[in-house]
Specification:
Largest sheet: 5 strands, antiparallel
CATH class of the largest domain: Alpha Beta
Low-confidence stretches: none
Shape: elongated
Helix content: 55-70%
Number of domains: 3
CATH superfamily of the largest domain: Ribosomal protein S6/Translation elongation factor EF1B
Radius of gyration: 49 Å
Distance between the termini: 142 Å
Structural class: alpha+beta
CATH topology of the largest domain: Alpha-Beta Plaits
CATH architecture of the largest domain: 2-Layer Sandwich
Number of strands: 5
Number of helices: 7
Length: 265
């Protein structure tokens, strides 16, 4: 009887030990699973955190590039361009100075020999007394003499000078002083800048000419001759003449587009 009780006790002890070991194993498995879950969660948190850091860093780089690097590069490029322009101007300064000196000498010759130039252009007299350097620059000399200041404090351009020049100079024969045409309409446009302080104003004229010779007299006044009165001189360039050359002996109304050039102080 006592032996059976001992065997039973031993069996209970063994079962208890086995149960405790099973509980320890189960607890160990649960602990391992919890540790793995904690590691996975931590890894995800760290990964998300690094992604956020990367995005923030990328945004900082973009902002830095747009606000600092790109403007700095643009300024560098602009500075390089300015330096290149300055170097080009310095390297060409001698040439520009020589040309400027030559132009100034030419202008001085034009001013001192102006009367002979006008006489040669208008009457073909005193041409041989003109400096040889001016004979090859007659077009420039005439343009310089004709160019005037047409500005007016009340208007963009002094229209009175333009109208007086057209009526009393362009529309008169240079020899007989008789009218070579009858003006029907004048339209004066808005002034436009040509270069620096040089401007031009477009004009549209409709003029009745009795013959081809009257039209040619008008064109010669525009392109070849110089008005004696310096206060009413105007430099013109003809753009278009609408004339029926087949009916040159009949009276015609002719449309003429031209530009009047002038300078401002």
């Amino acid at each position: 009887m006592m032996q059976e009780q001992a065997v039973q006790q031993n069996s209970q002890i063994i079962d208890r030990l086995l149960g405790e070991q099973q509980e320890k194993k189960s607890a160990g498995v649960d602990t391992f699973a919890e540790d793995n879950q904690i590691l996975i969660t931590t890894s995800r948190v760290v990964s998300i955190r690094y992604r956020i850091y990367f995005i923030v860093l990328l945004l900082i780089l973009v902002i830095f590039g747009n606000n600092i690097l790109l403007p700095a590069w643009d300024n560098f490029q602009s500075t390089q361009t300015e330096v290149s322009d300055i170097n080009f101007q310095i390297s060409n300064f001698a040439t520009i100075k020589l040309k400027s000196d030559a132009d100034q000498k030419l202008i001085t010759k034009i001013e001192t020999q102006q009367s002979n130039i006008i006489s040669c252009l208008n009457t073909r007299q005193n041409c041989t007394s003109i400096d040889p350097a001016l004979r090859t620059n007659f077009s420039f000399a005439r343009s310089y003499i004709q160019l005037n200041n047409l500005t007016d404090p009340k208007m963009f351009v002094n229209e009175k000078i333009l109208l007086a020049n057209i009526n009393e100079y362009l529309l008169r024969d240079p020899v007989t002083k008789a009218k070579n045409g009858l003006i029907n309409k004048i339209a004066i446009g808005e002034p436009k800048q040509f270069f620096w302080n040089l401007y031009y104003v477009p004009l549209k004229l409709n003029i009745t000419f009795d013959t081809k010779d009257a039209l040619l007299s008008f064109i010669d006044n525009v392109e070849k001759r110089v008005l004696a009165d310096p206060n009413y001189r105007v430099l013109y360039k003809i753009d278009k003449v609408n004339y029926d050359i087949a009916n040159y002996v009949t009276q015609q109304k002719v449309d003429i587009d031209l530009n009047a050039y002038y300078y401002t102080d």
